[in-house]
Backbone:
């Protein structure tokens, strides 16, 4: 969407359908809606009360189009000198072509979503042009690949549809363009599901595509099918729906100029893998994104938040690696067997209690330090992670021979802001490349977790390293 959508009409709250107020809805290209009312749903009763927020506001345009607004936050309420009232609401999601009296009634059978750059991840249509030598008539043949079934998850079928649109222009110089319009469909296998269930899957897909592209991506267009909008439903035919347009404000929407180019060497993997392998990978992604939700959110925060400072990106990626190591059953979250270590702690506690001249608070402080003393340091955790991926660890660490120590030293410095004279800390440029190397390690971990084998990882990581333009050992030796 490149221009504002403006809808003039009447608006009301589902519980007070008789009180309809004239107003204008303006939806910006970012998806954020602003509803300006000539009147008020609720008049403020206190000094800092601007009015009530509503989960759902219903509307009907002057042309008769049904509109449902979801998650409406009051922005201002004003009263003119003559007592004339106006009220403004910010709207998160606009459903054009639907009336739903509550969030629970926002239900769909199917939702289609177009993502930025999705066409980079699936085989494009085949276009062939032939010319008849006698008549000079040209014929254009376009063959679309069949929809690819990606996954069945929690009662939803998820498919990717490579499609195209022919655009012709005529005049002094005529031309025909073939535009790829690949989209993903999410369809409930049985009954209709609430919109939030679809939204949860869309968020997982958004993270997946961002991971694949090594760049933030986001939905550019959504539409849905609901039983309330069936045009035709014969017993022998499949239902025909009047599609509902869904416009959502994405809180993490970044500057589109940052996402215009995709470097082929930065694409981690595509959806052109064999179906069985792709299904395994997709299932792995959806399962692991649930199991490691907090870690995934940390990782993708460094990609979607374009305003994040370099220091924060570095600290967040270090936290990702540490949190993953703590949570993963592959690694021990201790240095010594916990039972044996507890015996040592008990012995020290006994000695302190019997012989120490320390005060009670000092004894408690020492005992507290002892209890946490059996945890691996960040340096040891990163070393263990690298050892587990020894075939690609030289590519990940590059010329940083003491990579784990360097990461830990700079993390400690940026956290505590207490520099040590015996440690050389990274410059901003070095922090940038160290952050990319931590990202490369996280990519390796995620590939392993979602089902890629070691051979695949060995092929992918060197290519991504080149895409990140990371200096290699050979380049530095020259």
Residues:
């Amino acid at each position: 969407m490149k221009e504002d959508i403006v809808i003039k009409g009447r608006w009301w709250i589902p519980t007070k359908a008789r009180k309809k107020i004239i107003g204008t809805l303006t939806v910006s290209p970012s998806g954020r809606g602003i509803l300006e009312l000539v009147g008020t749903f609720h008049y403020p009763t206190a000094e800092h009360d601007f009015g009530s927020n509503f989960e759902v506001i219903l509307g009907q345009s002057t042309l008769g189009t049904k509109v449902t607004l979801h998650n409406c936050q009051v922005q201002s309420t004003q009263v003119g000198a003559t007592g004339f009232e106006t009220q403004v609401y910010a709207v998160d999601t606009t459903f054009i072509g639907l009336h739903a009296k509550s969030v629970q009634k926002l239900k769909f059978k199917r939702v289609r979503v177009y993502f930025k750059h999705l066409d980079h991840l699936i085989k494009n249509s085949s276009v062939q042009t032939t010319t008849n030598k006698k008549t000079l008539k040209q014929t254009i043949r376009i063959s679309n690949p069949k929809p690819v079934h990606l996954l069945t998850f929690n009662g939803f079928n998820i498919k990717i549809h490579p499609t195209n649109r022919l655009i012709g222009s005529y005049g002094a110089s005529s031309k025909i363009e073939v535009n790829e319009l690949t989209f993903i469909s999410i369809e409930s296998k049985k009954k209709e599901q609430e919109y939030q269930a679809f939204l949860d899957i869309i968020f997982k897909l958004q993270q997946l595509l961002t991971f694949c592209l090594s760049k933030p991506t986001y939905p550019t267009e959504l539409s849905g099918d609901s039983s309330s909008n069936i045009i035709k439903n014969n017993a022998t035919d499949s239902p025909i729906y009047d599609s509902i347009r869904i416009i959502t404000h994405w809180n993490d929407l970044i500057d589109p100029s940052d996402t215009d180019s995709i470097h082929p060497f930065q694409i981690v993997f595509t959806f052109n893998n064999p179906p069985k392998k792709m299904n395994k990978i997709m299932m792995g992604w959806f399962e692991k994104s649930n199991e490691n939700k907090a870690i995934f959110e940390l990782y993708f925060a460094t990609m979607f938040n374009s305003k994040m400072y370099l220091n924060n990106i570095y600290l967040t990626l270090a936290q990702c690696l540490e949190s993953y190591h703590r949570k993963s059953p592959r690694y021990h979250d201790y240095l010594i067997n916990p039972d044996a270590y507890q015996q040592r702690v008990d012995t020290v506690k006994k000695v302190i209690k019997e012989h120490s001249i320390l005060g009670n608070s000092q004894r408690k402080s020492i005992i507290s330090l002892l209890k946490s003393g059996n945890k691996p340091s960040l340096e040891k955790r990163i070393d263990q992670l690298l050892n587990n991926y020894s075939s690609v660890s030289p590519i990940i660490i590059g010329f940083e021979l003491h990579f784990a120590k360097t990461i830990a030293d700079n993390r400690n410095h940026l956290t505590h802001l207490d520099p040590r004279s015996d440690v050389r800390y990274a410059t901003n440029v070095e922090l940038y490349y160290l952050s990319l190397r931590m990202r490369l390690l996280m990519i390796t971990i995620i590939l392993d977790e979602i089902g890629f084998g070691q051979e695949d990882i060995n092929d992918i990581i060197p290519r991504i390293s080149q895409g990140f333009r990371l200096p290699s050992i050979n380049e530095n030796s020259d």
Summary: Residues 474-478 have pLDDT under 50 and may be disordered. The chain has twelve helices and 20 strands.
